[in-house]
Amino acid sequence: MAEKEVKISEQHVWVGVEDQHVHLGLTNYIQGALGAVISFELPDVGDNIEEGEVFAEIESVSTIHEFLSPISGTVLAVNPQLDDHPSIINEDPYSEGWLIEVRLKNRSELNELMDMDEYYHFVFTDKS
Questions:
Q1: DSSP 2
Q2: Are strands 37-41 and 48-49 parallel, antiparallel or unpaired?
Q3: pLDDT for 6-51, tens place per residue?
Q4: Which of 14, 40, 64, 80 is least buried, going by the fewest C-beta atoms within 10 A?
Q5: Measuring CA to CA, which residue among 13, 40, 24 is closest to residue 77?
Q6: Torsion angle in degrees (nearest 10) through CA of 13, 60, 89, 120
Q7: Is 89 in contact with 12 (CB distance < 8 Å)?
Q8: Beta bridge mates, 47
Q9: CA-CA distance, 105 to 73, in Å (whole number)?
Q10: Which residues contact 66 (CB under 8 A, 6 or more apart)?
């Protein structure tokens, strides 16, 4: 099996690509900025999400933040571990802390996202 491709949006949402199915989650950078996650609101299985629209509302000890979906598609699964353990988003953001699984509607949307190196430069390069 090929290694999973990871793309990242400017809103700090990663997309793990496996064929037409993708997983969405928060980057390590943004989960650190949010602080300890205490609750979340995600779409239900069967819901359609659209690129550029809010798909997740994450509440941490310090803030509530809405995240925009970097892709369009149909929700296939919501991470069942989050109900009992929302802090898994902080502990393992790129693996066990995924948020939703989606059947990708338009693969070309992935072309607008950054790879890990581009994201690193986006976050850590001085923009002044």
A1: P
A2: unpaired
A3: 999 999 999 999 888 999 999 999 999 999 999 999 999 999 999 9
A4: 80
A5: 24
A6: 40
A7: no
A8: none
A9: 5
A10: 54, 56, 57
Dihedral of the alpha carbons of 104, 107, 111, 116, in degrees to the nearest 10: 40
Q: How are the residues of the chain apportioned to helix, strand and coil, as percentages rounded to the nearest 5?
A: 25, 35, 40
Q: How many CB atoms lie within 10 A of CB 62?
A: 11
pTM: 0.92
**Which amino acid, one-letter code, is at 9?**
S
Report all structural domains of the chain as residue ranges with CATH numbers, in order of start: 11-106 (2.40.50.100)
Using one digit for the tens of pLDDT, what is the confidence trace for 71-85?
999 999 999 999 999
What DSSP assignment string belongs to 44-86? PTT-EE-TTSEEEEEEESS-EEEEE-SS-EEEEEE-THHHH-T
**Which residue do the tokens 């290694």 mark?**
3
Rounded Cα–Cα distance for residues 52 and 60 (Å): 22
Neighbouring CB atoms inside 10 A of 66's CB total 12
SS3 category, 98: coil
pLDDT of residue 1: 31
